[in-house]
Amino acid sequence: MFDGNWRRFQVKRGKNSLYDDLKRQILTMELDPDQDLDEASLSEQYGLSRTPVREIFRRLQGEGYVDIRENRGARVIPMNHQTLRHFFLVAPMIYAAIGRLAVQNFKPRQLVDLKDTQERFRDASVNGDALAMVLENNRFHEIIGEMSWNAYLQPSLGRLLIDHARIGHTFFRPRNDDMRQRLQLAVDHHDGFVAAINAHDEDTVVDLVFEHWELSRENMEMFIAPEGMKADALVETPVVSMEKVS
After folding, report:
1. pLDDT the model gives residue 65
2. Of 48, 52, 92, 188, which alpha carbon lies 20 to 30 A from 225's?
3. What is the C-alpha separation between 88 and 5, in angstroms, rounded?
4. Which residues of the chain, if any, have pLDDT below 50?
5. Contacts with 183 (C-beta within 8 Å, 6 or more apart), sequence order
6. DSSP conformational letter for 35
7. Is 183 in contact with 89 (CB distance < 8 Å)?
8. What's residue 21's pLDDT?
9. pTM: predicted TM-score of the whole model, two decimal places
10. What sign does the dihedral 243-199-158-126 (CA atoms) show?
11. What is the pLDDT of residue 170?
């Protein structure tokens, strides 16, 4: 009985570690877009049989991190021109709608989590810890999505945040004073989100969404977007009226 319980505990711990590590490695670009995931190697590394590894792959596929191809195994979800084009077109609309719903529906404990995450994000920015900034920034916006309590928008937000982290990761590795100032402004925006949500101020939250998005977009255009993108998708990013996302 003891051996059986211990084995189940080990499997659960290995699955949790594999799940968390793959998410982190995908968000921080330690695993490249379209990179194959070696099922046998991961099984050995995490002390798991093939079945629980495949379960984690399926879970991550459902969340938008992994693509499973028949007879070819799992790979990190790709990024290409079409992916980026769709991202830039819909991201501000999703973020704005989520922001309004977060103000309307958040719970006090979620606001506490948001404040704690912002503290960690600010500390990481002071320490120049790029990987921590990527993860805490992602978690910050994830919590705002959870505050919305919307079963339709949350999955869309989750998928957007994966690519936002991947195509914007250079934002957290500033190379000059202008980039450092932009990073500090992003940190300040987060403080503004916390204050506006706490004050139940929808309009300020949505205004901050668009300011925050523009800050990210300009950086991603400059350092990530492929040639030809600006004349195509980026210029087409819609200006969404507040009424349309209310």
Report:
1. 97
2. 188
3. 48
4. 225-246
5. 125, 171, 172, 174
6. P
7. no
8. 97
9. 0.85
10. positive
11. 84
